[in-house]
Amino acid sequence: MIQYAAIILFVFGLYGLFTNKNVIKMIISLNVMEVGLNIFIISIGFNSDPNSIAPIISSTNQLSSVFVDPLPQALVLTAIVIGVGTTALGLAIAKNIYKTYNTFELDEMEESA
Amino acid sequence: MSAILLIAVPLLAAFLSIMMKKLSSYVLLAVGIFNVVLLLILPDGFVRIGEFNQPLGINLLLDTYSRIALLLLNSLILVITYLNLKSYKTYGTILLLALAGLNGLVLTNDLFNFFVFLEISGIAAYLITTSNKKPRSTFHYLMLGAVGSSLFLFGVIILYAMYGTLNMVGMIRLIQANGNYKEVILPFTLMFIGLGVEAKLLPFNSWVKGVLGNSNTLSGPMIASVYAGSMSFVLGRLITNLFDFQGSLLTVVTIILAVGILAGDLMAFASTKTREILLFSSVAQASIIALLFVNGIIIWAVYLIIANALSKTVMFLVINKATKDIGSDESQDLRGLFIKNILVGVTFTLATLSVMGLPLLVGFKIKLAFLTGLADANHIWLIAIILIASVIEGIYFVRLLVKLWYKGDKEINVSYNFSFKTVFVIIALALLVFGTYSTPLSYLDNSIDTVMEEVNNG
């Protein structure tokens, strides 16, 4: 179920990205899309079994126990960091766009370009 | 010595060069030379990071295929940096980051690691395009690149959910054992679209016009030669080994690529701006390369990538330097460019004729070989499309050459320094030598890519 929510969020972000003409709104749409993707990654490793344990092997917790897959969690951390980097770069370019064209609207830039 | 140094050294140097920004380009030159030397002495094989065996841990694969790709991209970055040492000296850190990202992209055998390097090299590419001073185009590139890599990651995660591994060799084994290709159509399509954005494949390449149409002597050759070449190499590796298109997906991909070849050349034909002509020609060539990989003609696709990367380096450097000095890239305004630059004109003409595939140049040998390969596989209509595209290509390139060689209304003065001329002459000579003496080209065959060998050997 959570995977459907993630895919819907991803599609919302993609829709926002292609329909918005405002640079800041486009960056926000990109973030919404990335959040959807991150939730999808986490949902892959999620385990709803009430007996499932944290993925730590100890004297009481053996490998045979049901546990949450830790790999998607590691992957999503990396994906979040990369997303932050891309957003920061996008905002820096947005600032540059405003300095050059005096607007955040892509339509108005075409007129003044 | 390990292949990991090809990624780690540029990455470390990138961080260190922030503290000495003015010297960053010199650091890059030193790292580039180190990488090229290292590539010549490293043995083939897998590098296991943390000594974890497959499918655990991240593996890097250095074989003849990746060695050729790495030698090409490291040498080209070295040459482009040297030529722009004075004009763009603060871009050293970014180019080091690009070098680390692209080296990792070619070497890695782990699909998530592949996504990470795709993003690192992508961020470096967006920063390189800021040198065009066209933030709107850079922003467009950033948005499309981010969507592309997100789609790629989406595909990778779906594959992980299905097969429980991110290791490429391990995943290929599991997909083969499963034998149900319909299951993997969705993730493969998402991954192909994601990589198509970076590899300039139509219809995912709307960023190209803004970025390369306003490029300079740094961003032009970097994006059109180094990035395009590297992305073609990695796309080729994935198409040949992992995607292995079949059934309806093969038909759809073939049609997309065939349309890309024709559309790219038609757009170049319709354009009057020199940089646009070159960039649309690159779009068409990228589709041809992908088409060859789809049909299993690996070795000639590799030679085509190398020949294109070298030719486009010369062409973009010549045109972008002239555009910088004259202030326009309209072919009409560049009339008579080669009258006072005969040597540059000759090298540009040789590079152009090689891209067109005229006899005596390496482009001809490559075109003849891959057309023969397609004929052997009975793809007559693909040959027809490539030949029609070649005729269109011939018309717009000859039209461009005539304009650049014959005098216009006003006299134009563009001076190319000794370093530029030396690079142009070396590349033109290489195109000519391998065109007339092509025996070394037959030393290698489709077995340069060893991923399937690893899959079959267990």
- Shape of chain A, please? elongated
Q: What's the architecture of chain A, going by CATH?
A: Orthogonal Bundle
Span of the ends, CA to CA of chain A: 47 Å
Task: Count the domains of chain B.
Answer: 1
Q: Shape of chain B from CA axes?
A: globular
Number of helical regions of chain B: 18
Biggest sheet character of chain A: none
Defining key terms:
heterodimer, A: 113 residues, mainly alpha, Helix Hairpins, B: 458 residues, two-stranded antiparallel ribbon, 18 helices, 2 strands, globular
Please tell me about this protein's structure.
The complex is a heterodimer of chains A (113) and B (458). Chain A is an all-alpha fold. Chain A has one domain: Helix Hairpins (Orthogonal Bundle). Helix content of chain A is 71%, strand content 0%. Chain A has four helices and no strands. In chain A, helix 1 packs antiparallel against helix 2. The model of chain A has no long low-confidence stretch (mean pLDDT 86). The model of chain B has no long low-confidence stretch (mean pLDDT 88). In chain B, helix 6 runs antiparallel to helix 8, helix 10 packs parallel to helix 12 and helix 14 runs parallel beside helix 17. Chain B has 458 residues and is mainly alpha-helical. Chain B starts with a helix and ends with a helix. The radius of gyration of chain B is 21 Å and the shape is globular. Helix content of chain B is 71%, strand content 2%. Chain B has one domain. Chains A and B meet through helix 1, helix 2 and helix 3 of A and helix 5 and helix 6 of B.
What is the strand and helix layout of this fold?
The complex is a heterodimer of chains A (113) and B (458).
Chain A: H1 2-19, H2 23-45, H3 70-101, H4 106-112
Helix pairs in contact in A: 1-2, 2-3
Chain B: H1 5-17, H2 24-41, E1 45-48, E2 59-62, H3 64-83, H4 92-107, H5 111-129, H6 135-163, H7 168-178, H8 185-198, H9 207-212, H10 219-243, H11 247-270, H12 274-294, H13 298-326, H14 342-356, H15 362-376, H16 380-405, H17 418-436, H18 451-457
Antiparallel strand pairs in B: 1-2
Helix pairs in contact in B: 1-2, 1-4, 2-3, 2-4, 3-4, 3-10, 3-13, 4-5, 5-6, 6-8, 7-18, 8-10, 10-12, 10-13, 11-12, 11-16, 12-13, 12-16, 13-14, 13-15, 13-17, 14-16, 14-17, 15-17
